[in-house]
Amino acid sequence: INNMAAISSCLPLFLKILLIFFLTDGTFTQNITTANTPTTEAAVATTTTAPSATATPIAANTDVGPCTCDLTKNACDVNCCCDGDCTADDRLAFSQCSEIVARVSGQTCITSSVIFRDNTGYETNTSNPDLLCIITDNYQERNYYTVPDELDTPSKLKAYSEKYGGYSYQTLNSDFTMKETNYVSGDLIYTRYENNATGVLSLPRTLNSAECSDQNGAAYLYDQKFTCTRFLSNLATECQSSLSLDAATYYQNFKLVSTPEIFSPGPVYPPSIDGTTSSPGTTVSMTTVAMETTTETLSYDNSSLVDIIIGQSYCIDQQGIGDVCNFTGSGPPSPMFNLTGNDFCDYAVTEVHYIIYHNGTKGIQQAEVRFVFKSIQDQHLPLLQTFQTSFKKLEDTNTFRRSGNPGYLIGEPVLAGRLVTQSLIDGTERQAIYLDSNRENWLTIVTSTPTGQCVTEPYSRRSVKFGENLRSGCAFRVSYNNIADVCTLIQQTALHALTLNQSDFYIATFGNSDVVKVGDWVKIIEQNKPTAEPYSQKGGCLNIVLGMHIEILYANIGSLVNPQAKIIGISFIYESPQDIKFQCVGPYCRPSTANMTQTFEVVSSVAFIDTTQPAVPIIAEKPSVTAKLPNDFFYPFYYLSSASLTRTSYCVTLLVLMVYFCH
Questions:
Q1: Which residues, 6 or more positions from 347, have their beta carbon under 8 angstroms from its beta carbon?
Q2: Measured distance CA(2)–CA(8) in Å, rounded
Q3: Looking at residue 266, what is its pLDDT?
Q4: Highest taxon of the source (predicted)?
Q5: pLDDT (tens digit, 9 = 90+) per residue, 10-26?
Q6: What is the C-alpha to C-alpha distance for residues 493 and 327, in angstroms, rounded to an integer?
Q7: What is the dihedral of CA 505, 506, 512, 517, to 10 degrees?
Q8: What is the C-alpha to C-alpha distance for residues 467 and 511, in angstroms, rounded to an integer?
Q9: Residues near 419 by Cβ (< 8 Å), separated by ≥ 6?
Q10: What is the DSSP code (8-state) at residue 197?
């Protein structure tokens, strides 16, 4: 009994020591001698070491973001109604509450198979007396994410990365090997220089920015088209010195390698950052990504090398008028800075189009390049350039690339043309659709220059591709002094930029519609077309239309496993007229700044609307069965000529037989 009393008297002290041990992770060093030591707790507190840093604990099954819009400490965030720093007067100035309110309902009367996912922020109260409902749901884990542990070791980080996905970039392989077999689709196209350097035909494009990168190689058999920006600053010094503006850069002093089979085996040195090869003394044209072979066996005059000839090119003069170029002599002239004509840089290259004729595995047979030249000024800078490759088989003639067969394919241009009347050889006439030879010019919308101005050239507009919704625009500038005098001109310029006289076009219903079968083409329907003339007001124009929306309605037809897209209608929907006024903000509208300009936007958009009708199974009605039995079928249980056997006795007898046989 005395021992039990001693143990019971020591039990509170033991529990206290155990509690302190757990709270301090067993790091205290003070010796406890008696239960009556009054300084024990103080001694423990002064002799424990500092606890290690731990993450803030997160309670399970808890909404950890009750006020996600409260981003400024000790200050009221605008439109954050749950912000504790906002007073009642502050909330009166709010236009809305920006926080997301999510309520989880514990009552459910809908089976899980009905709703796949409910991401609404509002509580949904549904009831159906025909179903077994859940009135109280105490399984909270299904409404909250699992709180993950901290990853504090490399092994944990690696395990999670391997399980959920790693980094998205890969280290570039600098070990290039010259291809020794024939070209296949997607291969780089090799070039050869007069100094026996070997490179790759370049097709400049945007990579990390809008600026043109000349290190992108053209892919064999792949038709490609890219538009990028050349950042020039002063044409007076760069017009004649910039290689990007000179046509000779893209076809002179190098030839195309017809097939890689002509190369002897050997390593290839990759290009360096400055555009030169690792072999010293070898310079690189911006048209190729340079590489150097170790063999000199392939001379520049080898018949397996293909010259690039000049094809039909297009020239745009200083007035913006374009026509087919008429070059004399050896080829296109180099850019020239015209000091007498408002500082124009003439013959600047704005488009390069390689057309390569091939013969399958035998490689490249012929090659030509077509240019678009333009006279540009500093106001056209930075300059947009377009680069394109097209591949054609040498023996193919009168080819035409469809946009689908028959249904449209995503990303292919929408076929559009104008209805014309053709005179046939036999003297008769027929109607047909005239298509532009450049498929990128079929149905187009407005686009802008790098400075935001509206592009007026037809070939520089943006092509409408099937299934791709887009919005594009451009801007025009007017000053306070002249805005009221040019209202009609503004409206005409805006409508021309929006439609480019395409309102009378016909659109092909299929990607392979025949141009002579006019019934397979639908006419563009115009809605809200402006009829009233705009009128001026001091500092502005009234009743101006600056936008148009293109709606293309299509539907899938055919088999459910192989649907074919068919365009069933198209409309040009003009925006409602609006008033544009010069905004007197900051330095504008002052007498000394009356010639300052402001920008107004012209906007065009395209939307593809899927009107596919769901497949409806048609089940035939159940046939009505008319059963007729012969008169003596139940003989001898029932006989019509017997006067003594009644119909009632027949029914009883039949019922007895059915029970007997069924039993």
A1: 247, 315, 332, 333, 334, 335, 336, 373, 375
A2: 10
A3: 47
A4: Eukaryota
A5: 445 444 444 444 444 44
A6: 33
A7: -130
A8: 12
A9: 431, 432, 433, 434, 504, 506, 518, 521
A10: -
